[in-house]
Write a structure and sequence with these properties.
This protein is 42% helix and 10% strand. It is α+β, with helices and mostly antiparallel strands and 913 residues long. The two termini are 34 Å apart. Bound molecules: 1-deoxymannojirimycin.
Length: 913
């Protein structure tokens, strides 16, 4: 059966090696659908309800895709808040994220095969014609090789795969003559210069027009790439070779994979996050299954499925064994150091690892998949979405959520494997949350902050490529899909490649370059899978019994979570290690312990390293705790009805919205717009929320002026044209250095782009009501029912707002329509009177706020914590790999190691996903 989950294959264990040609058919043998046998646990979901949910997914896709096509195409992505296309170079740079944008109508290409899966064959035919007519792959733009491969090459190949399938069926695509494949080939050749390194690892970026070397290329100076970036090419490149007969693509991708395998850390069998593409040295030696590595593992297993090459399975199994030994600390998956794999490298996890339970299902390791998935679901239930990063005690570490599909992907695979209707309920929750919190009139907006419910003007193409596919397939019956999904494998971007490629143009795999595999110990091969057909039918409560102990894991976690802590010295009767939280610089005993760390044994050295890490964490935590979290401005009047939530900076004075009820009111512009003197229009702002422009006087002065005029709140809008919370760190408005207790009203700050959304709404609708709060409120169903606009109307409204914002420059004098271009920052000291744009944030604002949760959860330690700790202690006792820690290291090398680890730790902290 295919990875999509059918019933063929390894229903009973396969005791010996299957011939590789059978492997593609049985590789997802471990994924045995049990939908028909489920009898207990979560209540079964009726066919009617599944169909209803499937239809809801279709409607949501139409909303996302329709708005992209109407308001953004041919741009790469839709900006759903301002309802226009994101064109690279025309928006402030977002750094690496923008490297996915190659001016090649990314979202359209990424959506191609989704259209077929969702039965939108006619739309698919139109979309293919548009791609062939409009898309140019020869743009002078530097793009990520990884993103271009998985999204664009994968999108074209997925489109081609389904185009030929449809053509063969005889109704649609009769005119199709491999045009998408020709484009894919053209793109493949464009990416090849990236592999021109001694290692064979590709450069991370390439200029689509000028390649790497040419002076015009503006790239080619990079030395490092991420492991996933170099190791996630084989499916697309091999498919391209096998579809076209041009072997070079598969050869290059294999060479890169061979090199990564060679460079694995030999004692732990783990790989680091980034590697030098010239020397092959690991640049970042931390290792997990999330950001930077994730799809490298995924592609080893799937390459085996698609290509039937045993070496890929062997590599996967070797890594998997290491992952389960060191990184998996059920239900957590925690990064470790490749050289010291018993040492956690982080105390938080990133959202990308949510794909891993799905991969475990494909491998056939269902129990840990159920556990990790359940833990992630508990986090989602707490925050509505999976934050980009969260700590081991399940606090938010990075609060964004760009509508990532990984959790939906794992939910789909778990449902296919277990048939447990619980996973249908999980999918239903995902749908509800998307509609409730991410849906905006013009598409779906990424969450800027899952805690406040605020949005980012961003809808990534993977949302259409993956999310809707997995959600639709979750609720679909076989007959709901016009082709057999089990004949295909999903790439990491959920593009579909046909399994018959395994028997086509095999010449490359035959001349396998690496000889090492034949010599390796066969015992490492895992040729069998758990017999799920026996497991689930006989015990329908199996999955539920695994989930049950984890039900409260998030709510009741201890402040340090359930992270594994090695306590050998404690157990042997010695004093417990000194923890950073207990350290006092004035305590001589503590100083003595510090001196000893690293001197006597590597156990002490480990304590020392942990101590240093904790100190770094503690100090950054303390800094963060002095900062106020962001706030939300939610537009609640027609046609928004609470659907648009803007990220706002709080003030260090005035009503504290986290302690008080939110403030709701209509908005009115103050006159003068800068709010720096007594208002001349008190009747207009009385009882309303006043809009004031930043600049020319202190924030507190503005607050007093609008309060005196009778305003119930204030929103300060940045005067720096184009500023946005997408690209600038949010900050809190400081007082004026004097007593600000007289200011009673709430004050929030919006960057210019977010402010403009409100100003444009006023121009369009005059009466605009907003809610100022610390967390967006659920939408008001009464208001929506009173006047529920169709999505078409909604998008039209949003379009009107957008076009008006494009046509009219609102920033002039005296009101929103009369602003000052020579404004000055508010909370500068009187001497600091330069333009705000030229002043460093520290001069005018309080600490930049980061997306970190500042309060820790009060909860009891569960038995589970103790159980897990006991379990991990037992495992470690019997684990032969622990012995690495017992060797005595010279102090210099320990100190060097410390420094290296601390540097790596600091680097990780700075890194973005
Ligand atoms: C997708 O583009 C791919 O799944 C990739 O492998 C990593 N994750 C993003 C979406 O989150």
């Amino acid at each position: 059966m295919s990875e999509a989950g059918g019933g063929r294959g390894c229903g009973s264990s396969v005791p010996q090696r299957a011939p590789w040609s059978l492997v593609a058919a049985t590789a997802a043998f471990c994924l045995v659908s049990a939908t028909s046998v489920w009898t207990a646990g979560a209540a079964p979901m009726s066919r009617e309800e599944r169909q209803k949910l499937g239809n809801q997914v279709l409607e949501m896709f139409d909303h996302a895709y329709g708005n992209y096509m109407e308001h953004a195409y041919p741009a790469d992505e839709l900006m759903p808040l301002t309802c226009r296309g994101r064109v690279r170079g025309q928006e402030p740079s977002r750094g690496d994220v923008d490297d996915a944008l190659g001016k090649f109508s990314l979202t359209l290409i990424d959506s191609l095969d989704t259209l077929v899966v969702l039965n939108k064959t006619k739309e698919f035919e139109d979309a293919v014609r548009k791609v062939l007519r409009d898309v140019n792959l020869d743009n002078d733009v530097v793009v990520s090789v990884f993103e271009t491969n998985i999204r664009v090459l994968g999108g074209l190949l997925g489109g081609h795969s389904l185009a030929i399938m449809l053509k063969e069926k005889g109704e649609y695509m009769q005119w199709y003559n491999d045009e998408l494949l020709q484009m894919a080939k053209q793109l493949g050749y464009k990416l090849l210069p990236a592999f021109n390194t001694t290692s064979g690892l590709p450069y991370p970026r390439i200029n689509l027009k000028f390649g790497i070397r040419k002076p015009e290329a503006r790239t080619g100076t990079e030395t490092d790439t991420c492991t996933a970036c170099a190791g996630t090419l084989i499916l697309e490149f091999a498919a391209l070779s096998r579809f076209t007969g041009a072997t070079i693509f598969e050869e290059y991708a294999r060479k890169a994979l061979d090199f990564l395998w060679e460079k694995r850390q030999r004692s732990s069998n783990l790989v680091g996050v980034t590697i030098n593409i010239h020397t092959g040295d690991w640049v970042r030696k931390d290792s997990g299954v999330g950001a930077g590595i994730d799809s490298y593992y995924e592609y080893l297993l799937k390459a085996y499925v698609l290509l039937g090459d045993d070496s890929f399975l062997e590599r996967f199994n070797t890594h998997y064994d290491a992952i389960m030994r060191y990184i998996s600390q059920p239900p957590l998956l925690l990064d470790v150091h490749i050289h010291k794999p018993m040492l956690n490298a982080r105390t938080w996890m990133d959202a990308l690892l949510a794909f891993f339970p799905g991969l475990q299902v494909l491998k056939g390791d269902i129990r840990p998949a159920i556990e990790t998935h359940e833990m992630l679901y508990q986090v989602i239930k707490k925050h509505n979405f999976l934050p980009e990063a969260f700590t081991t005690d399940f606090r938010v570490h990075w609060a964004q959520h760009p509508l990532r599909p990984e959790f939906a992907e794992s939910t789909y695979f778990l449902y296919k494997a277990t048939g447990d209707p619980y996973y249908l309920e999980v999918g239903k929750t995902l749908i509800e949350n998307l509609n409730k919190y991410a849906r905006v009139p013009c598409g779906f907006a990424a969450m800027k902050d899952v805690r406040t419910g605020s949005h980012e003007d961003r809808m990534d193409s993977f949302f259409l490529a993956e999310m809707f596919k997995y959600l639709y397939l979750l609720f679909a019956d076989k007959e709901d899909i016009i082709f057999d999904i089990e004949d295909y494998i999903f790439t990491t971007e959920a593009h579909l490649l046909p399994l018959w490629l395994s028997t086509t143009n095999q010449s490359i795999s035959k001349k396998n370059t690496t000889s090492e595999y034949t010599e390796l110990d066969d015992s490492n091969f895992d040729w069998t899978c758990p017999n799920t057909q026996i497991l689930f039918p006989n015990d329908p409560l199996y999955a539920q019994s695994i989930r049950e102990p984890l039900k409260n894991v998030v709510d009741k976690s201890c402040p340090r979570g359930i992270i594994r802590v090695r306590e050998e010295s404690f157990r042997s009767g010695a004093k417990p290690p000194l923890r950073a939280r207990d350290f006092m610089a004035t305590n001589p005993e503590h100083l003595e312990i510090l001196k000893k760390m690293g001197a006597a044994s590597s156990i002490d050295a480990e304590d020392g390293l942990r101590f240093m890490q904790e100190m770094i964490e503690l100090s950054s935590q303390q800094q963060k705790e002095q900062q106020l979290p962001p706030r939300a401005v939610q537009i609640v009047s027609h046609p928004f009805f609470g659907r648009v939530v803007l990220t706002a900076g709080p003030a260090q004075f005035g009503l504290d919205l986290s302690k008080h009820k939110e403030t709701r009111g209509f908005v009115a512009s103050s006159k003068p717009y800068n709010g720096c003197s007594e208002l001349t229009n008190p009747e207009a702002v009385m009882g309303k929320i006043a809009l004031i422009q930043r600049g020319q006087c202190m924030f507190a002065e503005k607050a007093r002026n609008i309060q005196n005029a009778g305003a119930i709140g204030g929103i300060v809008i940045d005067d720096n044209e184009g500023s946005s919370s997408d690209t600038a760190p949010l900050f809190q408005m400081a007082g004026d250095g004097k007593d600000t207790d007289d200011i009673k009203i709430p004050m929030l700050f919006l960057f210019s782009k977010e402010g403009r959304i409100i100003l444009d709404a006023i121009r369009e609708y005059e009466e605009v009501e907003v809610l100022l709060s610390d967390k967006a409120k659920d939408r008001d169903p009464e208001m929506e029912n009173e006047e529920q606009p169709s999505s078409e109307n909604d998008s039209q409204s949003a379009e009107q707002i957008t076009s008006s914002s494009q046509e009219v420059d609102l920033v002039d004098q005296g009101s929103p329509e009369e602003s000052s271009l020579n404004s000055q920052p508010e909370s500068l000291s009187p001497a600091d009177t330069d333009n705000a744009a030229s002043v460093s944030p520290s001069e005018q604002i309080s600490n930049p706020m980061e997306n970190h949760e500042t309060t820790s959860l009060d909860g009891e330690c569960t038995d589970l914590d103790n159980q897990l700790q006991e379990q991990s202690e037992t495992e470690e006792d019997s684990n032969p790999n622990v012995s690495w820690g017992k060797k005595v290291q010279p102090i210099d090398s320990i100190l060097a190691d410390w420094n290296e680890d601390i540097e790596a730790f600091e680097m990780m902290e700075k890194d973005e996903l």
